Amino acid sequence: SQERGLSVLVTLGRAGEGSLAALLREGADLVLTLPLEASEFLAHVEAIFRFKSRLRHSIEGNLARVVRKFETLQNEERLKRRDLHRDLIFSTTMGRVLVLSRSEFERYLTELNFEFSQPLENMRQVSSVRRLIEEDGLAHELPERSIEDLLLCTSELGSNVVKHGGGGQVSYGYSEREGAYILYFSDRGTGIDESFLLDALLYRGVSSKISMGLGFTLVLQICDELVMCTDLQGTQIIFKKKKYPSLEEEAAAEFKQALERF
In the structure, what pLDDT confidence band is assigned to residue 200 with cuts at 50, 70 and 90? Predict the structure, then answer.
């Protein structure tokens, strides 16, 4: 007999035809002795169905609670590892690299303003962005070192967006409050596993398959701050570089220091 996905095996026999224990061991859920009234038979079967139904619901409920508890513990452990890796990255890079969650990064991004945004789908577009940044730097009379650093960052991180991140975009601007030039890169890759992120930041060529996985060593040498977010939706990086003083500003600062010695 079957009902609501449950099954009951009923064995009917006359008294003395095999022992009860033997029949139950053979798989019977219920052993009834003939002769038997139909109403009594149905009552026995319904009782077995109720018992099996309650037992199934109890097992399913307990299993669901165990699964939820396991998932909660897994998530707590993942968050602990994530925070540990972020703290390690922050301290190892002497506070220059800050790794944020996507929601934290998006809030951070709203505070920034950019002069332009360009797609990065191929290396020609990377070269085009380099020209735009160089023209802007010359127009604002940036020191040559500042322009070179911005172009190097564009080449390294821009090529990663194209080659390893499935394409994306770059935005460029200047923060008066921080006195820094800003480059914002985003890609459509699968992100970097945070457990390997420290290696990706410190060791060139750690992997050619992970999103934004190369070029960090050079970028870290020239950046003042790097803010990033990486997950399965892609990697986003904000590169900040403060303007180098001009030769005239350096000379004025040295002259001031010389006067202070006397």
Answer: low
173 and 113 Cβ atoms separated by less than 8 Å? yes
Strand boundaries in the chain, DSSP class E:
2-3, 6-7, 10-14, 30-34, 97-99, 116-120, 168-175, 180-187, 225-231, 234-242
How open is the CA angle 207-208-213, to the nearest 5 degrees?
65
**Three-class DSSP category at 16:** coil
Mean pLDDT of the chain: 82
CB 194 within 8 A of CB 249: no
Tell me the pLDDT tens digit for each residue of 45-61: 788 788 888 888 899 99
pTM of the model: 0.67
* Closest-CA residue to 223 (of 93, 119, 91): 93
Q: Does residue 211 surpass a pLDDT of 50? A: no
Kindly state the DSSP code that residue 243 receives in the 8-state scheme.
Answer: P
The amino acid present at 26, given as its one-letter code, is E
Q: What is the mean pLDDT of residues 190-204?
A: 72
Alpha-carbon dihedral sign for residues 165, 92, 202, 96 = positive
Indicate the pairing of strand 225-231 with strand 97-99.
Answer: parallel
C-alpha 6/C-alpha 59 separation (Å) is 14
Residue 4 to residues 43, 47, 52, 63, 76, Cα–Cα distance (Å): 17, 14, 11, 20, 38
